[in-house]
Amino acid sequence: MAQGLTKLAWRNLGRNRRRTLITASALAIGTALTIAVIGLIDGMHAQLIHTLTRLDLGHLQAHQRDYRRTRQLERTLPHPVEVRRALERDPRVVAVSPRVHGAALASSGRRSLGVSLFGVEPRSEIKITEFHQTIRKGRYLDDDPTPWPRGRALTAAEAVDDERLTQQAEDAAIAEIEGDSQSKTAATPARQTRRQQTQRLARAIAPPPKRPPRVLIGKTLARYLAVGIGEQLFVSTQAVDGTMTELAVEVIGIFESGTTAFDRTRVILHVGDLRRMLHLDGRIHELAAVLVDLDRADDVALSLAGTVGPDVAIASWGMIQPTIRHVQQQNAAGSLIIMLVIFAVAALGVVNTMLMAVFERKREIGVLKALGMTAGRIVRMFVAEATLLAFFSALAGALLGLLLDLYLHQHGINLSANGKTTTVMGIGMGLTLRAKVTAFGVLMPIFVLCAVTLLASLYPAWRAARLKPAQGMREV
Amino acid sequence: MRYMPFAVALAWGCVGGAHASASLEALIRKADLVLRADTAAAVIEMKVKTSSYSRTMKLVSWADDRGQTKRALIKILGPALWRGYGTLKIGAQLKLYNPQNDNVTVVGNSMLGDSWMGSHFTNDDLVKETRLASHYRFEQVRTWQADAPAGGKAQYYLINLYPKPTAPVAWGRIAYTLWQRAGVVIPERADYFRKANDKRPQRRFEFTNVKALAGRLLPTLMKATVTKKPGEYTTIEYKHLKLDLKIPAGKFTEQALKR
């Protein structure tokens, strides 16, 4: 019997082909557009998360418990070797890389700017972030840190020398304060020797590196400080023991990540070099890891947190940057609204078509009822008609949507304005926005379409079922 | 508003306004005079103690407060690791000199709040132009008699300073302790509260070692502590001081900073 109903419904659809086709194509286009919009929004999220995780955070990070809150230099990761091993042993972890962070003033000529120093282990960092792929000029960091001799404490004799030099400087200062002009003129050559001796002592305590450490800087910073490849800039920072260190560094690469903050303020150098600058010895601030499955980062973080001791905090990218999740949720709500609007319009179309069909077929319905067809079967007949309509529209719509999605995935939408990348919340989006095709993004609109069409057919079907046979047959 | 580098806590002006009682105003005015001068030069010993390091530095500071822009130059005299380091501050403009690299760095305004050479003073503390006095009203909390550090009985005062409604200042209240003896008023302690009814001050300055220097009786040791970092402090001790002196020409230039 059911087969008979489907057959009947199918034939009914074929009675007014043009009307059926128009309704079906409206539904199909609605479905296709929804699929494409969801694909683009998913694509934008994927790109945001990609930028965030592959230019900065990685999927997972380990720190000293209070480091992320305070960002204090001395809060270095406890037991870095053990934690690194624990991360690397986990089969869900692809790669791990150590990092050191510092804040500094970068200056060149008359200009200076606050920057963040990002010390990385070059060989393992390329498995975590893609900064090496964003280098526009020059090259990436060397595997080995800058050769840098160790400092030593002053010998007893040198310490005495040092005190004598301080005393001399103090005497000279007092003489100058008291306006003793004779000592002032005599002081000049003495000052020169003092300076040379000081240099010697200072270099014994804190020897300079054999050559300027090499760094990568962002395009914006390079432009602001007017430095190019092979040129030097000064980086001054306060080490963990409070000493001010100022160091000349050499720019070997200029990157353009598209993310404003990185391109303007990030200076990337070898983790070993930054440790020396900050007097951190073997300590690090952070371990960053990339996982097999980005979406399971929260689970991995939670399960690893128990294994590394209470001083170590392990957090996923989503825990570190919850704003991305909020954006994701907002956009999900947004796309749901878009979908509802599109399908509400489609549903009105379906109601209209089916009502027309009911009014046209009043005579038939009357005859069918007179011959003994129950109200329930009449409802089922119309619902079957709507189901068929929805099914084929959805099929066509999904096909069209998938094609659109694939096109948008392949070619993307050009976001660049004058060759500049667009940013969302300061995070670079790359030059093109590409759609992301997901099973959910394709199946969801199909499901919603079928549901909406079925619901929309209920009212006309109910109207048909309520028709009195005699009244129906009197209609022309 | 005139005062020398590091004498920040002494930097009350003379404007009491209608709210202040005449005697309080006079007290503050006199305390203010302790380290005030048009020009000043000093040799200072600075000790910094934090949870991760402690160090002692000798420095020489020059200050000229006569003009519209206050000027200060500080050079580190020793030890070797920092000898020759210089800081030049002209108004809000700050320049740092590193003798190891022979490089002058011009520091942007954003770093004025950063620590100076790892101490508990900020770059901004070196020379500050905030007109504290005209921005605060005075209120005496209590007064009592006690032994003065310089000998004999002295009259002590604890005075609260509240910012006037429109004052562009960071503090909600400053509790200022000072004592008076034989016409001399000497500050003893200043507690800086973020909010007027905070229980604990954010930072505290204490003034001790009162003795005659540069022809005046004044506290020669100042200790700065930050409540958030217990056990940490920075002290400044005046080893040599000359006030209202003739400052050599070109003292506040980049050449002098490098010399």
Helix/strand layout:
The complex is a heterodimer of chains A (476) and B (259).
Chain A: H1 2-15, H2 17-57, E1 60-64, H3 67-70, H4 80-89, E2 93-108, E3 111-120, H5 122-125, E4 135-138, H6 156-177, H7 181-205, E5 214-218, H8 219-225, E6 232-238, E7 244-255, H9 260-265, E8 266-270, H10 271-278, E9 286-291, H11 297-305, E10 312-316, H12 317-320, H13 322-360, H14 362-370, H15 375-410, E11 413-414, E12 423-424, E13 427-428, E14 432-433, H16 439-466, H17 469-474
Helix pairs in contact in A: 1-15, 2-13, 2-15, 2-16, 6-7, 13-16, 15-16
Chain B: H1 22-33, E1 39-49, E2 54-64, E3 71-78, E4 86-90, E5 93-98, E6 103-107, H2 123-126, H3 132-135, E7 136-147, E8 153-163, E9 173-181, E10 184-193, E11 203-213, E12 216-226, E13 233-243, H4 254-258
Task: Spell out the key features of this protein.
heterodimer; A: 476 residues; alpha+beta; 3 domains; 6-stranded mixed β-barrel; two-stranded antiparallel ribbon; 57% helix; B: 259 residues; mainly beta; outer membrane lipoprotein receptor (LolB), chain A; 13-stranded antiparallel beta sheet; 47% strand; disordered N terminus
Explained architecture:
By secondary structure, chain A is an alpha+beta fold. Chain A has three domains: 2-53 and 324-474, no CATH class; 66-151 and 206-310, no CATH class; 158-202, no CATH class. Chain A has helices at 2-15, 17-57, 67-70, 80-89, 122-125, 156-177, 181-205, 219-225, 260-265, 271-278, 297-305, 317-320, 322-360, 362-370, 375-410, 439-466, 469-474; strands at 60-64, 93-108, 111-120, 135-138, 214-218, 232-238, 244-255, 266-270, 286-291, 312-316, 413-414, 423-424, 427-428, 432-433. Chain A is elongated, with a radius of gyration of 36 Å. The model of chain A has no long low-confidence stretch (mean pLDDT 88). Chain B has 259 residues and is mainly β. Chain B has one domain (8-238): Clam (outer membrane lipoprotein receptor (LolB), chain A), CATH 2.50.20.10. In chain B, 10% of the residues lie in helices and 47% in strands. Chain B is built from four helices and 13 strands. In chain B, strand 1 and strand 2 form a beta hairpin. Chains A and B meet through strand 3, helix 6, helix 7, strand 6 and strand 7 of A and strand 1, strand 2, strand 3, strand 6 and strand 13 of B.
